[in-house]
Amino acid sequence: MEIKLHTISGHEQGSGPGQGGRGVELEAIEKSYRRWAPIYDATFGRITAMGRKRAVAEVNKGRGRILELGVGTGLSLPDYAPHLEVIGVDYSEDMLAIARRRVAELGLKHVVALARMDARALDFPDGFFDCVVAMYLVSVVPEPERVMAEIARVCKPGGQVIIVNHFAREKGPLAVIERMLAPLANVLGWHPDFDRIRILKEPSLRVVEVRPMAPLSLFTFLRLVKEPR
Ligand SMILES: C[S@@+](CC[C@H](N)C(=O)[O-])C[C@H]1O[C@@H](n2cnc3c(N)ncnc32)[C@H](O)[C@@H]1O
Questions:
Q1: 22-52 pLDDT, tens per residue?
Q2: How far is the centre of ligand 1, averaged over its atoms, from the C-alpha of 91 (Å)?
Q3: For the chain, which domains are there?
C-alpha cells in the first residue's frame, strides 16, 4: 500500500502569533528532543524497553493498520509483526531521522510511512487505524486531552488504543521526587508529575486493561477500546 502523507514544516501548525503559545511549546519539544536524539537509545530508550516490548506484543495479536504516535527513534519498529502496516509519526525531525535510518538499515517493510506531525492535529481520516499506540508520549505533549481526542478520532470503532507511560504517584518518596522535578518539565522533555486522569476523559475510549510495568512499576500499560458506533 502506498500512503501519501502531508507533513508539516514546523511553521504551518500553531507557530504563528495569536495561536495561544502552541508554537512555543512545539519549539520546546524540538529543542529538547534535538538534545535527546543522539543519546536517547542508550539512556531513556533502554530504561523503557520493557514497556515497548509489552505494547508491541499486544499489537501483534491484531491485524491491519497501526499508528505509532510519538515514534521517536523507532526503537519499537523492528518488533512489529510483518503482517501489520505500521505508520509512525513524531514532531522531532532529529528523532525521526534516526527512525528513518533504522527502517532503511533493517529493511523493515512493514513500516509503510514515517512522517512529521503534531499529535494534536493528525493528518489522517476518521477511523483510519485498527490500533493506535502511544508509548511515553502523553506526558510529553502539550494538551494531552487534544491528543486523546485525535487518537479516538483516527481509531476505528471497535479498534484498540495502547498507551504506556509513567503516571504520577499519589504518595511515597517517589511522589515527592516527581513533584520536585515538575518545574523542570521543559528541560527533561516530559512531565514527571503527570496525572493519569488527564487522558481518561475521552468518552468513546473505554479502559479494558491497566497493568503496572517493570522496572519498579515505574510505568503503566493501558489498553483501551474505541466504542463501536
Ligand atoms: C519520550 S519520547 C518516546 C519515543 C518512543 N515512543 C519510545 O518509546 O522510545 C517522546 C516522543 O514524543 C515526541 N513528541 C512530543 N510532542 C509531540 C507532538 N506534539 N507531536 C508528535 N510527537 C511529539 C517527541 O519528539 C519524542 O520523540
A1: 567 889 889 989 999 999 999 999 999 999 9
A2: 7
A3: 23-226 (3.40.50.150)
